[in-house]
Amino acid sequence: MSATAKAVRKGASELSPAAPDLWPVAEFPALRIDCRLPNAMTIDVEDYFQVEAFASTIERSDWESLPRRVERNTDRLLQILSDGGAEATFFILGWVAERHPNLVRRVVAAGHEVASHGFGHIRADSQSPEEFRQDIRRSKRMLEDFAGVPVRGYRAPTFSVGLGNKWAHAVLAEEGYCYSSSVYPVKHDLYGTPTAPRVPFLPVPGILEIPLTAVRMLGIDIPASGGGYFRLLPYRLSEGLLKRARRVNHSPAIFYLHPWEIDPEQPRQRSAPWKSRFRHYLNLNRTEPRLRRLLRNFAWKRMDRLFLDGERGPFPVVTSWTECSQA
Ligand SMILES: [Zn+2]
After folding, report:
1. What would the mean pLDDT of 154-177 be, rounded to a whole number?
2. Which of 91, 118, 254, 309 has its CB 3.0 to 4.6 Å from that of 155, i.e. a possible disulfide?
3. Could you give the CA distance from residue 7 to residue 278 in angstroms, rounded to a whole number?
4. Ligand 1 centre from 163 Cα, in Å?
5. Is 0.85 surpassed by the pTM of this model?
6. β-strand pairing of 113-116 with 39-45
């Protein structure tokens, strides 16, 4: 074991049991995250026709009549995770759970966490606080009924929690959620809050926001959480960004992907705008081999075990939207 690994392991074992809830960034200026400390693998369980990129092309009223592929694709992901010895958090759409309750049960049986992706894949920032409350309440109850375990995590569709709807965190806490992973501290045309912390933070008492992973290089916030970038960039570059983000942010990385991203055979939306088709269909055949490689090269845990249940290492957690070194 390297000196760094020993130091990290020693630090984690000494600090974890009696650690305070907050981990000020400044206390760990010299810490370098060791490669063996796990990251969080997350899957946003929705079908290919429910994505934001096709929102202007496919009517919600058509969802019911389209061939569903989410069950077979999610089962395939369960197999890939099993082969790679990884555990993950599945943010499942209530709409999908309602039609595939046994899939929810299989996710639990395989040792993964079930969390909520809302019910109908409606952006959080396009809902009123009351509509949002109904959406996250309905999905939580349904998932808990099927899963038989508490649902503690939430991810907003299209990372749609930001400065314009900060109330969402208070509603999540009131509805019994413990954490959210809905803020992406980057600039993007569909989402993003570049000024948000890049490490877990407590936006309101009672709920932890675990932002998607970004790393600042040359003054630019670069996404390092996977998704479409994992298909776009060469594998080595994705891996390098992930490692650098862990080092610079002193925090585990959060990686995400969707079941439809391992499905090159899915029906094509030929009337969708060029940019949407490019984003959605690029390198679908490369996701699975890249994912298998990623699972071999890093250790992966579910969100709740990593951040809520005592395995939290010496990771920084800041207390507000603004208290963070964004240098
Ligand atoms: Zn989604």
Report:
1. 96
2. 91
3. 45
4. 20
5. yes
6. unpaired
